[in-house]
Write a structure and sequence with these properties.
The protein is α+β, with helices and mostly antiparallel strands and 500 residues long. The chain has helices at residues 5-21, 47-70, 120-132, 218-227, 248-259, 323-327, and strands spanning 25-32, 75-77, 135-145, 158-167, 173-178, 199-202, 205-209, 232-237, 262-267, 278-282, 285-290, 299-306, 338-342, 345-352, 356-363, 366-374, 383-392, 398-407, 427-434, 441-447, 457-459, 465-467, 475-483. The chain is 16% helix and 32% strand. Helix 2 (47-70) runs parallel beside helix 3.
């Protein structure tokens, strides 16, 4: 007698669990999705039209999920806004929202779709997970009714949240996260009253989840890693790249390294808004990544990761970020220091003029030290060493300490800090360090063409970011990007006058 379908499914699921338990590694997938966008409208579309658009996007996502499962992936992350796009007001996004219950209700929408209010998107995502025996991570909108007894209740009688959901290989809803740090244009959504630190256990480690702009703040990102000790972060994002420090692949890989976690980043793909850059990152570097501004193609990425990276022999040692830099004699400011602006912040720069040498540049309490050797000094390219120690206040408020070696856009020093994607200068070696007041520093190395350098650099336990071997490609930037979270709420201090 053939086993019934539920029994067969349970047996397959149990086998998958046993296989995962037997291994110290797992296979992760992320999908960069070229989102099918709705037409911008003044009035809300009908629920049927909203669902039709979401189904078009889910058709594409389902293909990626099936392919990932066939290649042995245990979990797949899809992007923020990946099911309905953007271009919404508070009113026009409403037909796209569903009421997403607390995972404590123990619900498999695929097999019990009528238990709560109609939720066709959750039902379909649940079935994608169940039918392919894979964890599925997606981003959708949640709606929660409220009334005047709640002083914070919006005038339209509902909260609307940018929400990540996770379905396990049986199709059960196991995680729901409401984005806490909304980016400025997200006026269609509400902030949750309190930040949510959402985790769930799997046979291959403890997972946490947050969304896009959250990565720049303490809650919930740092809480998940530093306090709750997750092994892997799931990161749906709709990330607009900002050179020189905040391209998706560059910053997300640096965050994984700085925090010592696996990081699965799925970005939307929309080049006219500089949205591209997804990856599967480990504490020791990128396992695979995708950056493509030339076509409008999505991309499935798959790679193997350690289930518990802190227990891995390759896990980086603890770093004292200022140990080396504090031992170096601080040079007095020299006549060649000048100011330049990067993403609205005024840096102090000094030009890298010689083929090799040691340089120091300081701003406030931060001194940055660079040792370097250039393979061949070019007359048509200029590099600077820069320092920034201050509060960033555009598109969010957060305190930064940054040391950076970067290529200027042209030989005109006034262009230093402007976005640059390509370079031709190769370095024989580099070593960058700084007198950081924070323990949270993210090491970035970006090569020409917005390419990462996995395996070609390392951070020593005394805080030096060094090249391990001769860099194989021209350098765009080498950066130590520090976040001093305790200073985020300071009042902005007026900038000092420019150097005479």
């Amino acid at each position: 007698m053939l086993p019934s379908q539920p029994l067969l499914h349970a047996a397959v699921f149990a086998l998958a669990v046993l296989q995962a338990l037997a291994s110290d590694t797992f296979t992760a997938a992320v999908y960069e999705h070229a989102v099918i966008l709705p037409d911008a409208t003044v009035e809300p579309v009908s629920p049927d039209d909203a669902l039709a658009l979401m189904n078009k996007n889910m058709d594409v996502l389902e293909g990626a999920i099936k392919e990932a499962a066939q290649q042995g992936a245990h979990i797949i992350v899809t992007p923020e806004d990946g099911i309905y796009g953007w271009r919404f007001t508070r009113g026009t996004i409403y037909p796209y929202l569903e009421d997403i219950p607390d995972p404590a209700v123990n619900w498999i929408p695929c097999t019990d779709p009528t238990r709560f209010a109609p939720a066709p998107v959750q039902e379909r995502l649940s079935c994608m997970a169940r039918n392919n025996s894979i964890y599925v991570v997606a981003n959708i909108g949640d709606k929660k009714p409220c009334n005047s007894s709640d002083a914070g209740c919006p005038s339209d009688g509902r909260y609307q949240y940018n929400t990540d959901v996770v379905f396990d290989p049986e199709g059960k809803l196991v995680a729901r996260y409401h984005k806490y740090n909304l980016f400025m244009p997200e006026t269609q959504f509400n902030y949750p009253k309190e930040p949510e630190a959402v985790t769930f256990e799997t046979p291959f480690g403890k997972f946490g989840i947050f969304t896009c702009f959250d990565i720049l703040f303490w809650e919930p990102a740092l809480v998940l890693v530093s306090e709750l000790q997750v092994d892997t972060v799931l990161f749906p994002t709709a990330w607009m790249n900002v050179l020189p420090f905040l391209t998706a692949v560059e910053f997300h890989s640096a965050w994984a390294m700085g925090m010592g976690v696996n990081f699965l980043a799925a970005n939307t793909h929309y080049t006219s808004m500089s949205m591209t850059g997804s990856g599967i990152y480990a504490p020791d570097g990128a396992r695979t990544y995708y950056y493509n501004m030339k076509t409008e193609d999505g991309r499935l990425l798959i790679a193997e990761l350690d289930s518990h990276p802190r227990l891995s022999p390759a896990f980086p040692p603890a770093v004292n970020w200022s140990l080396y830099a504090l031992s170096v004699e601080r040079f007095s400011p020299n006549d060649h220091d000048f100011r330049g602006r990067i993403f609205y912040d005024w840096f102090t720069f000094t030009e890298v003029t010689k083929p090799e040498g040691n340089l120091t540049v300081c701003q406030k309490d931060l001194c940055c030290h660079l040792s370097y050797k250039v393979a061949g000094k070019r007359e048509d390219e200029v590099y600077v060493l820069g320092a920034f120690d201050g509060l960033h206040v555009v598109e969010g408020q957060y305190y930064l300490q940054i040391c950076t070696l970067l290529k200027c856009k042209t030989t005109d020093l006034n262009t230093c800090g402007q976005p640059v994607e390509t370079a031709q200068t190769k370095f024989e070696m580099f070593s960058l360090s700084g007198t950081f007041g924070t323990n949270y520093v993210f090491p970035e190395v970006l090569y020409s063409g917005v390419q990462l350098a996995p395996g070609e650099f390392e951070v020593l336990n005394d805080g030096r970011l060094i090249s391990k071997t001769r860099p194989t490609k021209p350098v765009v930037t080498v950066t130590l990007f520090g976040r001093w979270y305790e200073k985020d709420h300071l009042k902005q201090v007026p900038q000092p006058p420019a150097f005479p």
